Amino acid sequence: AKPPQVFFMGDIFHVLVGYLPLDKEQQKIIDLIHALSEISQVFYFEGNHDFSMRFVFDSKVMVFERQNQPILFQYDNKRFLLAHGDLFITKAYEFYITQLTSTWARFFLTFLNFASFKTLYPFLKKRIYQKPIRLWELEPKELKAFIEKRLKAYQNYIKDFNIDSIDGIIEGHFHLKSGAKIPLNAPIYCPLPSFYYEQSLFKVSSSVLEPSQNKDA
């Protein structure tokens, strides 16, 4: 049966800058996502490897830019924050990723790629593709500390935005090895494993997640 909703949680591509030319493999995947959006509601959370996706998707694919994440969804009267996951890390990283995804960077990278006769972007992609995708495995104590740190960061976020409470957090980015024992006490922290390694999907049964109309809902 076709799923009513599909969530792409970012870094679906090893590197894709939406305003620069797509290669054949990227275009093929984009076309498949567009085809999926004809039969299911599709949400795409931008990651740190794939951004400015509004330039490649049509209006049927709902794109959440990093600056607008996390997004509050509701499922079965429970509320979850969803994000790619590269949030609340360090000030240095925040500065780097904010500059990389900025409007000035878009004009600068577009100019450089044009000035290099469209060879710069393929060259950079080739270099990035050569980097291995890591799988992060933590010892139980390290995992516990990591989860507590992530939960605290999100709790601080909801305080700043006057969100009443949440029941869970779903995010990717960290490539935590699946099978890690995650505490089930609320709020539930659900780190999504890397599809590159696990080849698995995260399924929410019965009903659908609904975006809250506003963060005060």
TrEMBL record:
What are its GO cellular component terms? Answer: membrane
Q: Which domain of life is it from?
A: Bacteria
Which GO-annotated molecular functions does the record name?
UDP-2,3-diacylglucosamine hydrolase activity
Which BP terms from GO are recorded? lipid A biosynthetic process
Q: What is this protein called?
A: UDP-2,3-diacylglucosamine diphosphatase
Can you name the source organism? Helicobacter pylori
